[in-house]
């Protein structure tokens, strides 16, 4: 899933200066699972905003809504009849949802209520970790299904570097050395000879480096 | 083996001499006089001088400019290049820049993560890794081609080196990792500073078992300790460094004003002991901001005078 983190309300507040009606807009997908922008967080942010507006003596109508998905025009259309009642939208979706909402309603200011962090998964309740950077050319077959692009701080394709210590990255004990994990995996799979295969220079044009990316599937295109 | 490049370091190694290299860090500004002084101090006691490339991710005068200075003074620089800060275009471009001044040695490195430096908020590049940089330099030199495939007019004639840390984890892949670097094109290796000689000897045994010492020249890295405090710092704070307790104890067992001498003595003893290890082709003496003691270390370790080649 896409993992996001709630922005501090102090960062959001100045954007809403002068607004008399604000919609806090959640998303029922990834940000709900990572507890940053689902219905619950929409309610929490809306209540906090109401309190702060009241403290400032401002009369602001704060609406709450959570769509099935903000990255899908079909669900965004559900706002068609109500969005005009608001001066601004604070979207708690990931960066994709925030932009899709703004694209769908070009004259409406849409502000981010979260910082979108990475593609990852929950290690335990309240702890999410990165696993993929969407480099566009998956290497996992070569590395025992542990990604050096997402998980090595230097994204070394032929690691580990000289800073790997007791299974941990040179960044510190809170970060696993991706190459230690790769080696452990290769060992478990009985494929240690793979370690000595040089992974060639990567084609980063499939990555962010190649510019904004698109996937076009002619076979499913309508 | 015939030399493949005009590198003085390569000639000395191929002639079978124990080589001696050292290194100097560029200044944090554009006043390069001190670096030149440091290099001049060791001119007659080493075969080549590495110039570090923004080591520990602290921004400094660039390795390339400093190497050019040394070259123009008739010294033999080793251009250190990390892949942290430059993509494949910039790396190859700088290699050509160095080649245009006939800089004949390069050391290909990953580079410390920028979190440790003075620009912790910076982006890192890592377009290539250190092994892929080795491959790139070899391709430029041996095939006369850029990574992109186009021909190079007057390819770089560089003796290509890599670093290896026998003390990093996991230990079991430290020999395979060296093999991989050699397969990628490394012709000489400079190791991390050696304080744990037993562990280094175990690694060298593995290196010899695979005949890797015959495929690349292995220069054993040493760093003289200035004080017990430095020993403790290296032990606890520097990633991938192995400083045994007895080394710290030995440094701490002498009064503060004599610890520097003890550090030099320990360094000389380490070199003498490593000279007995089969497969060692030379020494890389990293005297951090202590270059003035390098001549003495070289002499006391029986590595002087340096061969008068070319």
Report on this structure.
The complex is a heterodimer of chains A (222) and B (310). By secondary structure, chain A is of the alpha/beta class. Chain A contains seven helices and nine strands; from the N terminus they run βαβααβαβαβββαββα. In chain A, the strands form three sheets. A four-stranded parallel beta sheet of chain A has the order 3-2-4-5, with helices on both faces. Chain A is elongated. Chain B has a single domain, classed as TIM Barrel (Alpha-Beta Barrel). Chain B contains eleven helices and eight strands. In chain B, α6 links the parallel β5 and β6. In chain B, α4 packs across α5. Chain B is globular, with a radius of gyration of 19 Å. The chains are: A alpha/beta (222), B alpha/beta (310).
Give the SSE layout.
The complex is a heterodimer of chains A (222) and B (310).
Chain A: E1 2-6, H1 9-12, E2 21-27, H2 30-33, H3 39-55, E3 61-67, H4 73-76, E4 88-91, H5 95-104, E5 110-112, E6 114-124, E7 127-132, H6 148-151, E8 168-169, E9 172-176, H7 178-188
Parallel strand pairs in A: 2-3, 2-4, 4-5
Antiparallel strand pairs in A: 1-6, 6-7, 8-9
Chain B: H1 8-14, E1 19-24, H2 33-42, E2 48-51, H3 63-72, E3 77-82, H4 88-100, E4 105-109, H5 130-143, E5 159-164, H6 174-184, E6 188-193, H7 197-209, E7 217-222, H8 228-237, H9 245-252, H10 256-275, E8 280-285, H11 294-300
Parallel strand pairs in B: 1-2, 1-8, 2-3, 3-4, 4-5, 5-6, 6-7, 7-8
Brief summary of the model shown:
The complex is a heterodimer of chains A (222) and B (310). By secondary structure, chain A is an alpha/beta fold.
């Amino acid at each position: 899933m896409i993992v996001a983190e709630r922005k501090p309300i102090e960062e959001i507040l100045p954007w809403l200066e002068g607004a008399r009606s604000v919609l806090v807009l959640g998303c029922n997908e990834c940000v709900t699972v990572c507890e940053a922008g689902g219905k619950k967080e929409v309610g929490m942010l809306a209540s906090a905003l109401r309190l702060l507006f009241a403290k400032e003596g401002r009369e602001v109508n704060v609406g709450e809504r959570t769509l099935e998905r903000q990255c899908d025009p079909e669900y965004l259309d559900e706002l068609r009849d109500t969005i005009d009642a608001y001066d601004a939208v604070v979207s708690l979706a990931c960066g994709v949802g925030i932009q899709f909402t703004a694209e769908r309603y070009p004259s409406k200011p849409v502000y981010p209520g979260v910082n979108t962090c990475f593609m990852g998964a929950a290690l335990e309740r309240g702890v999410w970790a990165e696993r993929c950077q969407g480099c566009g050319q998956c290497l996992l077959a070569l590395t025992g299904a542990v990604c050096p692009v997402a998980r090595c701080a230097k994204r070394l394709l032929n690691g580990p570097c000289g800073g790997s210590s007791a299974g941990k990255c040179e960044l510190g004990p809170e970060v696993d050395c991706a190459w230690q994990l790769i080696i452990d995996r290769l060992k478990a799979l009985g494929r240690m000879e793979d370690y000595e295969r040089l992974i060639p220079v990567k084609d980063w044009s499939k990555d962010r480096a190649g510019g904004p990316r698109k996937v076009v599937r002619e076979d499913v295109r309508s | 083996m015939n030399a493949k490049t005009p590198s003085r370091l390569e000639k000395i190694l191929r002639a079978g001499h124990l080589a001696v290299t050292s290194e100097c860090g560029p200044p944090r500004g554009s006043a390069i006089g001190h670096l030149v002084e440091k290099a001049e101090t060791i001119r007659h006691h080493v075969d080549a001088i590495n110039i570090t490339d923004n080591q520990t991710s602290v921004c400094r005068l660039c390795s390339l400019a400093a190497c050019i200075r040394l070259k123009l003074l008739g010294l033999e620089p080793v251009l250190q290049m990390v892949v942290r800060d430059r993509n494949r275009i910039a790396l190859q471009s700088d290699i050509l820049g160095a080649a245009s001044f006939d800089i004949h040695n390069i050391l290909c490195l990953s580079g410390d993560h920028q979190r440790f430096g003075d620009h912790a908020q910076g982006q890192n590049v890592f377009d290539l890794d250190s092994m892929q940089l080795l491959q790139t330099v070899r391709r430029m030199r041996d095939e006369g081609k850029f990574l992109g495939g186009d021909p190079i007019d007057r390819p770089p004639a560089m003796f290509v080196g890599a670093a290896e840390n026998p003390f990093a984890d996991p230990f079991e892949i430290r020999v395979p990792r060296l093999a991989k670097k050699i397969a990628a094109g490394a012709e000489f290796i400079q190791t991390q500073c050696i304080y744990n000689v037993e562990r280094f000897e175990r690694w060298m045994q593995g290196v010899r078992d695979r005949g890797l010492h015959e495929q690349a020249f292995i220069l054993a890295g040493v760093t003289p300790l200035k004080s017990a405090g430095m020993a403790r710092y290296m032990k606890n704070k520097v990633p991938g460094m192995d400083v045994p307790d007895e080394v710290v104890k030995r440094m701490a067992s002498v009064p503060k004003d004599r610890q520097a001498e003890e550090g030099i003595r320990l360094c000389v003893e380490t070199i003498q002991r490593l000279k007995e290890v089969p497969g060692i082709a030379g020494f890389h003496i990293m005297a951090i901001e202590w270059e003035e003691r390098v001549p003495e270390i070289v002499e006391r370790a029986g590595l002087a005078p340096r061969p008068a080649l070319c």
